[in-house]
Design a protein that fits this description.
204 residues; 8-stranded mixed beta sheet; 3-stranded antiparallel beta sheet; homodimer; 2 helices
Chain lengths: 204, 204
């Protein structure tokens, strides 16, 4: 077609070929739609791209919170809550518990929705749950260098992997002091003129 | 390759070709992964498939709720809350307000997270917000046959489009009576041995 496809969004990813028939795609606004999509030049399939859910837990035990030190990029070596991309066929709570099992080798006894944070510039929505551990048993999963329980006044604030994790741990510290927990809904916006915090640059 | 790809999940969609290089894909568990994914036989790109967020509002005005009668399949002619797939680059609240604008030609004055419902068999997560209308002004958008404010005792319970909509309106009726609103987290499971409620069968 000679038209160089561009991504509709800096984090959506550029598609070059139709995943149904293998022909080239072009970026265009389908009839009746309002946004540009990658559309197949042969079979007409419209390839929608949508935000992803990052589900995770804020696991806690006797006033301490469980953090994982990342063994993967981005932010290798920094601390985070166990969280990752939700998979098809599961509930958000199941995804959060699964990520905790995979990254921290820990079982949670329950899950209470605690934070819903949109990160529009990378098209992710974090959904984090307060989750008492079923037992003080944990360890480093394949994506973690280390997993540990932290007293709230020992949280490594300057070594946290992502702004959303810092924000949610701040909420937790405040809410625990006043013993009143609510669901926090918020957003992390990209700092003006800067690269996405803690994420690699957009690529294909 | 001779291997007929199958979908990793009944709602994930079957991929046949790589959207980066146009070669065939096969379904396999990538190294270090635990789930089957569509992987390109030539360039090795792993094509992840993840749940979609359906964002929407429960718009209200002077004790009444705003419902839309669907002008599209599935569930043409039945009533629903304004909601639709979240787009890249927006927050969940922006998506919910946008869908209300598009489907009900209405502006909301605010949004309070009200329900998070997973529907694992179709890999969707509904995120619905209580939203006072900015004014009692509304109309039928392109995807609606009709839009109307309903007193709670006049909700057309037997003509609602989707189980999740019925569930959330039930929560709202109860919560409004006791004047105490919380965030409802739940799930809609596929009835045993039945087709997905209100959704067309999985197809490519």
């Amino acid at each position: 077609m000679g038209v160089m496809p561009q991504t509709p969004d800096s984090r959506g990813g550029i598609l070059k070929f139709c995943n149904q028939c293998g022909s080239e795609v072009t970026l265009q606004v389908p009839e009746g739609d309002t946004l540009p999509r990658f559309v197949c030049t042969r079979c007409g399939t419209v390839h929608y791209q949508n935000p992803k859910i990052v589900a995770g837990c804020l696991p806690h035990w006797e006033g301490k919170v469980l953090l994982c030190r990342r063994a993967i990029e981005p932010r290798y070596g920094l601390w985070t809550l166990p969280a990752g991309f939700m998979e098809n066929g599961e509930t958000v709570q199941q995804a959060a518990a699964r990520e905790t099992r995979e990254e921290a080798l820990a079982e949670v006894a329950a899950t209470s929705l605690y934070a819903v944070y949109s990160i529009p510039h990378i098209s992710q929505v974090y959904m984090l749950f307060r989750a008492p551990l079923a037992a003080p048993a944990f360890g480093a999963g394949a994506e973690s260098l280390d997993v540990a329980l932290f007293e709230l006044d020992r949280i490594p604030w300057d070594q946290l992997a992502f702004p959303v994790i810092k924000r949610v741990l701040e909420h937790y510290t405040t809410d625990l002091q006043r013993q009143r927990f609510e669901v926090h809904v918020g957003e992390i916006l990209r700092p003006m003129g800067s690269a996405p915090p803690g994420r690699p640059p957009a690529s294909t």
